[in-house]
Design a protein that fits this description.
Blueprint (H helix, E strand, L loop, with lengths): L12 H8 L4 E2 L1 E7 L2 E7 L2 E6 L2 E8 L3 H9 L1 E6 L5 H8 L28 E13 L2 E13 L7 E3 L2 E3 L8 E2 L4
Antiparallel strand pairs: 1-9, 2-3, 2-6, 4-5, 5-8, 6-7, 7-8, 9-10, 10-11
Length: about 180
């Protein structure tokens, strides 16, 4: 494990956050079950690692309910959001409220091992392969056991602390994601 205490100089938190806000990314909801209920957390720290075998990573605050639930269950889901899914993106990004997803999951969830956001562009069911703790986050590496996608729709994006679409509309809104 990398010992961050050995690194003597770091950019300030504010400088780093501002620099990282310039990177546009897709918006995903990492899903799991908390007390048997579908739970989801909006994240931008998500990446594809390998296509063969299909592997992804997601980074979550180590003390977040989702990280604790994923660590216990050793599985999680990833729903890639479409441009019209600001409501679920906002719910999953709020740090001061519960993030139960019943109102955003639908019949599609029945075919998924993990909670799936209805209408998402894609959903991945993942099994935890490995975890790495660094600073105040846990990075989960997941083997993708099932993947479903839609051929219709455009992605919801996040850039400069604002949700955006591929084509500017009045639906963009400012909100910090976790």
């Amino acid at each position: 494990m990398l010992d961050l205490r050995l690194i003597t100089e770091s950019a300030s938190t504010e400088e780093f956050a501002e620099a990282m806000s310039t990177l546009a990314s897709g918006v995903v909801i990492v899903t799991c079950r908390v007390d048997g209920r579908p739970w989801g957390m909006t994240v931008t720290a998500f990446a594809s690692i390998s296509a063969d075998p299909p592997t992804v990573l997601v980074s979550l605050r180590s003390d977040a309910p989702a990280a604790l639930a994923i660590g216990s269950a050793q599985s999680f889901g990833v729903s890639i959001l479409a441009e019209g899914q600001l409501g679920v993106a906002h719910l999953g990004s709020k740090s001061d409220r519960s993030k139960f997803l019943e109102q955003f999951t639908g019949a599609r969830e029945a075919s998924s091992a993990s909670p799936a956001v209805a209408g998402a562009l894609a959903h991945l069911d993942c099994e935890v392969l490995e975890t790495v703790e660094i600073a105040d986050h846990t990075v989960f590496f997941g083997r993708v056991r099932a993947a479903r996608s839609s051929q219709a729709g455009a992605p919801l994006l996040y850039h400069r602390r604002t949700y955006r679409t591929l084509f500017p509309t009045e639906r963009t809104t400012t909100c910090r994601a976790n």
